[in-house]
Each structure stands twice: as C-alpha cells, then as structure tokens.
Amino acid sequence: MRDAVGAADRLQASVAAAVDEALDEAAVPPGAIHVTWVGALDVAACPARYRGQGEAGWGFPGWSPATAAGAIGRAALDLHLAEAGPAPEHLPSPVEAVRRWVRAAGAAGAPGVAGWVGDLRAEGDRATLAASAAAAGRWLAGFVRVLGWPLPAATALLNVARDGAPAPKWWPRRGSPVSVGSGADARIGRITGAGGHTLVVHRAAAPDDGDIVRRAAVEAAAGALVHRVSPASVVVTAGDTGERARLEVDEALLASGGEMLVSVVRQRVVATGQGFDPADAVPSPHCRWCEHAGACPPGRAWLAGPGRWRGGLPALVPDGVADTRPR
Ligand code: SF4
Q: For the segment 89-117, what is each residue's pLDDT rounded down to a tens digit?
C-alpha cells in the first residue's frame, strides 16, 4: 500500500457516502448501529438471517466463557508484558498469566470484561470463572504459539481496556447513528503515515477457510477507518492448527471490507420496514442453527439436500424438513 493515508481517506469518504445513502432510505430511524466484524460476517453469510435476528441478535450477546476468552486472554497477556516484560526468558505460562489477571481484575460492576469477572467473583461462581480462565488460557497459548515468543518487534495488543479507556471507534460524521469498531487483536509495527503496520486477528480455533478473506477484508477496512491509516497487511491466525494466513492490503481488499461494513447498515435499514423475508436467503451450514429454517424454503431445501451430510455422515433431519434420506 503506497499511499496508506490517502487510501484510508478515500475509504472514509466512500463509506460515509454509502452510509448516508443507506440511512436516507430508512422509513423510520434505525437507531444506533455499531458495526463490527460480527455483523459484517453475519450479513455476508445470509442477509435474511441477519435481519431476522432482530434487536436481540444484533447487539453484543453478553459475556460468557466463549465471548470473554479473547478479551481475558489479551488483558492477561497485556498485564504479563507490563509486569514481566517481553524478554525471551519471560515466556508466559497461560494458566498463571490468566490467574494473575483474574486476581487483579476490577470490582463487581466495573466496565467491560473486568467487571463481569468481578461480578463472578462476588457471586462465588467458580464454575464460570474456571471455564472462562480455561478458554482465555487456550486463547493466550495459541496466540503465543502462532506469533512466537518474544513477540515480533513493535507488537501492541489492541482492544485491551487500560485505565477504563473505551475502544476507539470511527463515525462517518458528527452525530451519526452509525459507528465502526475494529476487532483486531494486535498490531505489529507502529502506525505512521507510511502505513507499514500489520493487524493481527487471532482465533482460538479455525473455522472454515472461507471466513479468512472476509474477516481480513473487514478488519483491514475497519482498521483503516479507526486508525486513519491503512494497514499494509492483515494476518489471520488460529491457535489450534497453528495456521497463519497473511493477506496484503490493497484498495480492492479495503473496498470489499468497506462494502461489507456498509451492508450491515443497509440490512438494518431494510429490517426496520419488514420482518423475516427469505427473498435473499443464502443457504449454508448456518441453516443448521437458524431459527428461521422452518419458514425459509431455500434453507429447508439445503437442509434436506447437501446439508443432510455432515462430516461424511447423514445429519439428523430438523423438525419441519422433508426427510429425503435414502432408505
Ligand atoms: S435457514 Fe439458512 S438460508 Fe434460510 S435464513 Fe436461515 S441461514 Fe439463511
């Protein structure tokens, strides 16, 4: 990316214009819309399912051992780096690093994941604490496994709450109901006008490979919007397989990521005017867990066809779907 600042400026202008256009179509104001990779990938997978989720499915689902794993893992590693430093002999023990952070975490009611952990401690919910610590330890172990220790020079953890500071966001304009957040876990290299930094997206486990390019595109665009400089590359890693995929960022990747972010706003605007509508349903393995499958002809057809096979074995046929398995 030769003109990292100019590319970010152009992306900001095009996303802001597209967001304005989408909001102008709204018959009623859609309310505040915070766009992250979660919604962008949901819309890309199946717009009909995303719209049908409604308010309950569009927002943050709340903390749980699964949703807190990355936040606790990043915070624990951040604390370890602050206390022990990044020297080779200070390779973190995931269990001990997480345990130290949990002991130091905020009181009940504090903001973010620290407050949730404080609530669990106050309630004496040791089972949820243990499950969360185990998931966070796996996240941290995988992160260090894939990136190596010492971490690459000039690595900075992102989305770590320090001193209660909120995560940075981007707004298309002052007063806009739309905001964009970056979900990258770390940055390698400083953010300068030259734009040579890399954003790291770490997953504890690898889903199917199709998500890698989409996730990288969304994070490249969200990172360029939030930091106002385009990253040079996005590295997507997985702790269980050790995979490490690097995607170089160019204008095409930024544009596709920006389009995915804007699509969330478009779908939220459409959702204000209609309930679930399978007109643009896109069948995929998501159909297996979709609560609209019973009212979605494309999803039912997929479940009764290719979707009945799972890992080479026929899957159980969901309620309301014709059983076409060979007898
Ligand atoms: S059943 Fe499948 S195709 Fe239909 S809305 Fe749900 S995810 Fe989309």
A: 999 999 999 999 999 887 766 778 999 99
Beta-strand pair 186-188/155-157:
antiparallel
Select from 42, 46, 274, 289 the residue to mutate for testing ligand 1; criterion: most ligand atoms less than 8 Å from CB. 46
pLDDT for 164 equals: 61
Name the residue at shortest CA distance from atom 4 of ligand 1.
Answer: 299
Q: Which residue has the tokens 């790291």?
A: 200
Give the span between the Cα atoms of 81 and 150, in whole angstroms.
10
Pocket test for ligand 1, best of 41, 53, 286, 300 (most atoms within 8 A of CB): 286
**How many CB atoms lie under 10 A from the CB of residue 86?**
14
Residue from 277, 296, 308 whose mutation best tests the ligand 1 pocket (most atoms within 8 A of CB): 296
Which residue ranges in the chain fall short of pLDDT 50?
A: 322-327
Whether ligand 1 lies within 6 angstroms of the CB of 68 is answered as no
* DSSP letter string, 280-308: G---SGGGGG-TTGGG-HHHHHHHHTGGG
* Per-residue confidence (pLDDT) for residue 178, from 0 to 100: 98
Tell how far the Cα of 303 is from the centroid of ligand 1, in angstroms: 10
Closest CA to 176 of 27, 35, 53, 7: 35
Task: Name the 3-class secondary structure at 119.
Answer: helix
Indicate the DSSP class of residue 278: G
- In this structure, the residue with its CA closest to atom 5 of ligand 1 is 49
193 within 8 A of 184, measured Cβ to Cβ: no
Q: Please report, in angstroms and rounded to a whole number, the separation of the first and last CA atoms in the chain.
A: 57
Confirm if 113 and 63 have CB atoms less than 8 A apart: yes
Torsion of CA 117, 120, 122, 124, to 10 degrees: -140
Structure tokens at 105: 């975490």
Q: Supply the pLDDT for residue 57.
A: 87
Question: What is the distance between the alpha carbons of residues 206 and 154, in angstroms, rounded to a whole number?
Answer: 26
287 pocket-lining for ligand 1 (C-beta < 6 Å): yes
